[in-house]
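User: Reviewer 2 asked us to show a designed sequence for the structure in our supplementary figure. I'm pasting the structure tokens here. Could you produce the per-position amino acids so we can include them in the response letter?
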């Protein structure tokens, strides 16, 4: 038993017999969906598989173990998913592992656990439990994807959607959205619908369909932040929130990624101030077109390097809290709405902006 990368696990168990218990370590819903689909295909071998879902916040490990030992009434094979596995205490997780002592030969148990950010205060203790458990069960690490691995997944997504994508367009998607496959798929799905019969996804397509009005909103948003106009900043942010009510935490992370990207480009543009050639290279490298280029240059002139770097400290702390709130129930009791984290960031940026 051991830790596995996403693709390595799929390759290994395409031919090998499935283990009685598997743990998915990581929050990405797209990768989880792909793994569950692959497991069901393998388990069922063309036949129906019953899927039973439990949530650790609502179920005891004893109830899950009982379900694991109960044969399905609707299909020969069964897969049991235990979501939010991290919500159980270490002792409760150990009880769940008892399933391995006498597993049901027609049932596979899947434990689904989120992964906190690297500097989550109790991450070392939390991760250590899974490291120890990896001697007893297979763990699929959904957090260890490199850029080229994500691009390979993007190509698979596009193929499944009946489209083609250029390497440059895939790079731009990752730049705009980040490397979380779940967020990338949401954008690619929208692109595929907008393209209709058109098969090719180009950088221009990504710029138009992924950014579009969102980019204009981000520019208005960051311009308001730069002017220390907290009222206008909050108005634009709340407008964007109203237009995108779904996806919850991942929407907030997407907004944070867009803001981080904006200020990173400002940091690059600031380095090139005074050199038309360097500024042009910065804009071309970041796929900034038309009048937006002038906006970036004007904004870059309004900040010092130290001020921009302070912003990144704020971004880091906000991202840490967004992720930690999924793991730390005590933090959830004090921060009940991820939107408050973003609004708090807005207040802080307006307070520290020049």
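Assistant: Here is a per-position design you can include in the supplement:
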């Amino acid at each position: 038993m051991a830790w596995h990368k996403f693709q390595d696990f799929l390759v290994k168990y395409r031919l090998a017999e499935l283990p009685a218990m598997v743990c998915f370590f990581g929050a990405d819903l797209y990768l989880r969906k792909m793994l569950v689909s692959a497991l069901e295909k393998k388990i069922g071998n063309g036949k129906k598989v019953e899927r039973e879902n439990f949530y650790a916040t609502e179920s005891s490990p004893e109830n899950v173990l009982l379900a694991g030992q109960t044969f399905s009434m609707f299909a020969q094979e069964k897969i049991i998913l235990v979501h939010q596995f991290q919500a159980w205490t270490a002792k409760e997780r150990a009880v769940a592992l008892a399933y391995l002592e006498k597993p049901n030969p027609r049932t596979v148990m899947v434990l689904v656990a989120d992964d906190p950010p690297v500097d989550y205060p109790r991450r070392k203790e939390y991760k250590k439990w899974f490291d120890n458990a990896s001697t007893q069960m297979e763990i699929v690490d959904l957090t260890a994807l490199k850029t080229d691995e994500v691009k390979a997944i993007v190509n698979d997504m596009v193929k499944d959607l009946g489209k083609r994508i250029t390497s440059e367009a895939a790079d731009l998607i990752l730049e705009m959205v980040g490397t979380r496959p779940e967020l990338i798929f949401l954008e690619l799905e929208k692109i595929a619908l907008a393209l209709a019969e058109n098969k090719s996804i180009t950088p221009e397509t990504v710029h138009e369909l992924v950014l579009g009005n969102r980019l204009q909103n981000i520019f208005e948003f960051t311009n308001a932040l730069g002017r220390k106009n907290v009222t206008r900043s909050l108005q634009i942010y709340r407008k964007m929130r109203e237009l995108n009510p779904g996806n919850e935490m991942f929407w907030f992370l997407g907004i944070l990624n867009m803001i981080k990207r904006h200020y990173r480009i400002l940091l690059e543009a600031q380095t090139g101030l005074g050199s038309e050639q360097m500024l042009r290279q910065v804009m071309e490298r970041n796929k900034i077109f038309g009048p937006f280029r002038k906006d970036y240059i004007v904004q870059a002139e309004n900040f010092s390097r130290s001020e921009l770097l302070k912003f990144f400290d704020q971004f880091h702390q906000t991202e840490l809290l967004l992720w930690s709130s999924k793991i730390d129930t005590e933090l959830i009791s004090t921060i009940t709405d991820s939107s408050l984290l973003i609004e708090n960031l807005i207040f802080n940026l307006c307070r520290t902006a020049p």
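For the response letter, you might also mention the following. The beta strands are 3-5, 21-25, 49-55, 77-83, 107-113, 138-141, 164-165, 200-201. Residues 327-336 have pLDDT under 50 and may be disordered.
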